Amino acid sequence: MSDPQISRIDGTTSARRHFRYFDYVMAAFVAILLLSNLIGAAKLAQVGGFTFGAGILFFPVSYVIGDVLTEVYGYANARRCVWMGFFALVFMAFMSFVVVAMPPAPGWDGQAAYESVFGSTWRIVLASVTAFWAGEFVNSFVLARMKVLTGGRMLWTRTIGSTVFGQAVDSLLFYPIAFLGIWTTSQVLTVMVTNWLMKVVWEAVLTPVTYAVVGWLKAREGADVYDTDTDFSPFAKAPQV
């Protein structure tokens, strides 16, 4: 943190502070999360001999943004975004269930295709919500703790390190809950490991982008958050303003 215009603040202070760009970053995080789960989660693709969930092509952007949220705004603000994403996923699942269940109009022959795209089973919904919630909190916790331990140096170690742990939890929960018994055990294990590796590789590839976005936001927010006094419980109440 060499810029004199950037002030070091603790986690409690960051939770009370108004940030200029925070709402925009949160909106991008939730939007990409919803679209990735809605469009790509259930499709199994194969390219160059690698089998993977199709959502992996765009979903990494959401956890890059998740890293940016924790690095720039601190764990408490990232926690708010995780809960916003969680409730948005639940509502999306509820809305999909209601719309799919409504009887189609006479003469409309798109019901089967509509169900195929939007009719996720309860297992996929449960897997998506559970894996997202657990994986994102692990990711944010690891990144925030590593930032304090490294004194804010070597950003790449904590963005990649947090992804290793956070996305391991995500993959370990999502694919067995959603597809074990539907896909073969071999397919589940293959896709689970492949997706985890691809997420980590994506995080490494996007490291220059993460550095640029983090630097830009810190300079404009004028703050660098260190979670030295933060309650890391997912259920902790936000400090009063």
Automatic annotation (TrEMBL):
Does this entry carry the keyword Transmembrane helix? yes
Residue intervals passing through the bilayer:
21-41, 47-69, 81-102, 122-143, 164-184, 196-217
Topology versus the membrane: Multi-pass membrane protein
Q: Which GO terms describe its cellular component?
A: plasma membrane
Q: Which top-level group of life is the source organism from?
A: Bacteria
UniProt key word Cell inner membrane: yes
Location within or outside the cell: Cell inner membrane
The alphabetized UniProt keywords are:
Cell inner membrane, Cell membrane, Membrane, Transmembrane, Transmembrane helix, Transport
Q: Which GO terms describe its molecular function?
A: transmembrane transporter activity
Provide an example Pfam family for this protein: Vut_1
The task this protein performs is described as: Involved in the import of queuosine (Q) precursors, required for Q precursor salvage.
Family of the protein in this entry: Belongs to the vitamin uptake transporter (VUT/ECF) (TC 2.A.88) family. Q precursor transporter subfamily.
Q: Which HAMAP family does this one have? A: Q_prec_transport
Q: What is this protein called?
A: Probable queuosine precursor transporter
Look up and give the organism this protein is from. Novosphingobium taihuense
